[in-house]
Specification:
The chain is mainly alpha-helical. It contains 4 helices and no strands. The longest helix is centred in the first third of the chain and has 17 residues.
Length: 70
C-alpha cells in the first residue's frame, strides 16, 4: 500500500508543476520592492500570548505548562 501511495504521488507531481503559471509582477509591485530594498528596513513584530513568556511558540512544551494554566 505504501508503494502504491508513493507511486501515485510521484506520478501526480509533474502535473502540479506543469499547472503552475508564469507570474509577472505589476509595475507597482516592482517599484514597491525596489523602494523596500533601498529603504534598508524591515521588521516583523509578533505579539501573542507566547511572546509574553519570551520562549517562542513552543513555550507550553518547553516549560511543561498545562493547557488550563496557559
Amino acid at each position: 500500500m505504501h508503494a502504491l501511495r508513493a507511486t501515485t504521488l510521484l506520478a501526480l507531481l509533474p502535473a502540479t508543476v506543469a499547472a503552475q503559471g508564469i507570474s509577472a509582477p505589476s509595475a507597482a509591485n516592482v517599484e514597491a520592492r525596489a523602494w523596500f530594498q533601498d529603504a534598508k528596513f524591515g521588521m516583523f513584530v509578533h505579539w501573542g500570548i507566547s511572546a509574553l513568556l519570551m520562549d517562542g511558540e513552543w513555550v507550553m512544551e518547553n516549560r511543561g505548562i498545562d493547557v488550563a494554566e496557559y
